[in-house]
Amino acid sequence: MSDLLIALATLPLWASLGCLLWPRLADLLSPLVALALVGCSLLLLDAIAATPVILHHLGGWGGDLGISLRADALSALLLALGTVVTLAATLFARRYFTDDQVRYRFWPLWWLLNGAINALLLSADLFNLYVTLELLGLSAAALCTLGKDKPQALRAALRYLLLGLIGSLLYLTGVALVYAEYGTLAIPSLAQQIQASPASLTALLLLSSGLLIKCALLPLHIWLPAAHSSAPAPVSAVLSALVVKVTFYLLLRLWFELFTAVITPAFATLIGTMGATAVIWGSWRALMSTRLKLMAAYSTVSQMGYLFLFVPILLALPDHDSRALAFGALVLFALNHGIAKAALFLAIGIIQQRLGHDQVDRINGVARQLPVTLFAVALAGSALVGLPPSGAFLAKWTLISASLVTAQWWWLLVAVIGTLLAAAYLVRVLGAAFAPAEPPPPTGKQLLSGELPALLLAAMATLGLGLGAAPIWSLLAPTGLGNIL
Amino acid sequence: MSWMLIDLTLCISLLILAVAALYARGLQQRVVFFIAFGLLCAIAWARLNAPDLALAEAAIGAGLTGALLLSALNDETDPQPPLTQPRLGRLLTTAITALLTLALCAAVVTLFPLHEGIAIQQLQQQMPHAGVVHPVTAVLLNFRAWDTLLELAVLLCAALTVLNLAPARPVTAHDSPLTGMLTRILLPLLTVTAGYLLWTGAHAPGGAFQAGAVLAAATVVLRLNNNPGFTHLRVGALRALLALGLLLFLGVGLLQTVLGGAFLQYPPSTAGFLILLIEAGAMLSIACMLSLVYLGGHLHPHWPCHAPSNGVDTWKRHS
């Protein structure tokens, strides 16, 4: 079983080297690797159902000396999300980059980014996580530079890189403090040692603020809209669906597994408030934005906000069962957003390529030109809004009822306003796309295989996740999340 | 007593140089102050009994970064950005940094007296099985080899990005600042030093990163002597050179996995040899990556691949 962990962690690196050494084979190699990774992650989910935690001691050392790879239900679910989104985006990217030379540059970096995501999700070592964050930030910024509009993409990528570096340095300082106090970097043994102390509190604040920058929680989101909207479509999909999500995953580990003794309700309320502002401000800016990609990027800011709303609620819930329920909803929401947002970005990529622009007020007639893609936009949009039967519907329902149980009704208000705004920006886009164009645009043929990845992802978010959500809870139940669940 | 005086002088000079590097009048002065800061930093690491870090800081922090900054300064194609920042932004940065520093100091003070952690104890127990005598190399290449492997991937990513972004423009010949005579002396010296650092890493400070940085310094010397850098290398060979380090590392890592062991586990009898092998590959790749980063604007005309028909034309169009 630990072979699965090794495969998930190293296969992307092999793929990157393969694509670097034999560029002309990369178009063939990449889908195969992506498919193999999906297979591995599904097998891992299966294995997790039998044994809740799988450990692999790299180099055979283990303990506090070496680095261990670890998978539990949470990381296995996010790995499955990552590999599925990567497969769809990989298939999409083969057709999206029409210029050979751009594609040859794209593949090695693409697999490095994927390797960073998998390594981060599997790592059980604070310093190793720092290295994966570095690889994640650098490869993500590098992929942003492949955008069409060179000067703008470069500026956005540079800002992304620099803010990411500040985040990494804050994180590293926190790691140094933790190591100085407890003498180890292994997460399983730290989880049993960390106590409330001035140094631990400082470390928590440093680690959290570093990761919050990478997570783009308002007001640290300034880099996100530009970077996510100027990157090529498959890159935007992975940035929004996975890259911000895995840093959120790391925050969850820190708050609920490592620093449970240090974290206070006041801290959780602060995080929740920032999340609430992000929900409303992000949705508002998404509604006001004039470009489709910018709308999707601001929607990511707001959807990430929802995830942070769960934090104060999780901490206030009284008993194990209700926490497990809310935690399952949180994971479901993250999976739902990952898949739906990837679908949305891929679909927007097709629209942008067809029309040559992505201005919201000039897309009238698109519904006639690209019916399949527009269907994907509508499906993905309804999953983002949280219409039944999408996963977000279940998750928001649980969020709202939990906020009432814990007598924190104000989070309900935020969720409702955010949902209404999300519905508004979705309807605005659909309305514009269905508006008749004068003169009617040519209904040229669009290859279905190009539109298929977005459509399948969108369908998976609306139908698959909503109707098949029960296994997520049962999978998460045995381990939950470390100390408090 | 005398050491304390030296340390105090070192600390004060570091602070002064840091301020000077941030606030000196021209960019040129700032870069020079930055290089001096890096050199003193290296001495500070040496005083803190971290000679490995001192070597890395001198070679990469002061040396290559300094050379990179200086060559960026000399690039006339870029207009120099204005040096003044908005006053509010500067005040805000200062305030946040000051707050952070104070909080850090307060937190660190509570940590004393420091005790040896459990990781260090386990390190001392396991050193006999590490395959090398030098503990830093043992940690980097054996106990925590996964970190180093991923760091190589980070470097590869940086080098690929530089190659992707660099406009392929021909090398402009300029007056050679280094005479051929000096180069003839420096090149063999640097090469031998790199080999020595690589070999000595097993039992003393040194290793792939330092050796690679010294080797990269050799290419900087070549470049200053008007050598065209990597443009003469076939693009396939360049790609192979970049991939070599990571490829060897991953390959060696899988050796034992096939026999049922863990990933990155070395058989104890050959651990020393395998570590040297990985480091040799890593040194070549690191040297290649670092010099690519330094060369910056004049990279390979055919990156990433020979275009099927009009490769030469693209090259000319860009230049």
Question: Helices, strands, pairings?
Answer:
The complex is a heterodimer of chains A (485) and B (319).
Chain A: H1 2-21, H2 26-50, E1 54-57, E2 68-71, H3 73-96, H4 100-122, H5 126-144, H6 150-182, H7 187-193, H8 198-215, H9 224-230, H10 233-258, H11 265-288, H12 292-316, H13 320-355, H14 366-369, H15 371-385, H16 391-405, H17 410-434, H18 448-467, H19 470-476
Antiparallel strand pairs in A: 1-2
Helix pairs in contact in A: 1-2, 1-4, 2-3, 3-4, 3-10, 3-13, 3-18, 4-5, 4-10, 5-6, 5-10, 6-8, 6-9, 8-10, 9-10, 9-12, 10-12, 10-13, 11-12, 11-17, 12-13, 12-17, 13-15, 13-16, 13-18, 15-17, 15-18, 16-17, 16-18
Chain B: H1 2-23, H2 27-47, H3 51-73, H4 87-109, H5 118-126, H6 135-143, H7 145-165, H8 180-200, H9 208-224, H10 235-258, H11 271-295, H12 311-318
Helix pairs in contact in B: 1-2, 2-3, 3-9, 3-11, 6-7, 7-10, 7-11, 8-9, 9-11, 10-11
Classify the oligomer: heterodimer
**What general outline of chain A do the C-alpha atoms trace?**
globular
Q: Kindly state the percentage of residues in helix of chain A.
A: over 70%
Taking the alpha carbons of the first and last residues of chain B, their distance comes to 61 Å
* Low-confidence spans of chain A: none
Stretches of chain B where pLDDT is under 50 for at least 5 consecutive residues are 309-319
Spatial order of the strands in the main sheet of chain A? 1-2
Number of alpha- plus pi-helical segments of chain A: 19
- Radius of gyration based on Cα positions of chain A: 21 Å
Question: What is the overall pLDDT average of chain A?
Answer: 91
Give the amount of beta strand of chain A, in percent.
under 5%
Biggest interface: chains and residue counts?
A: A-B, 65 and 55 residues
Helix content of chain B: 55-70%
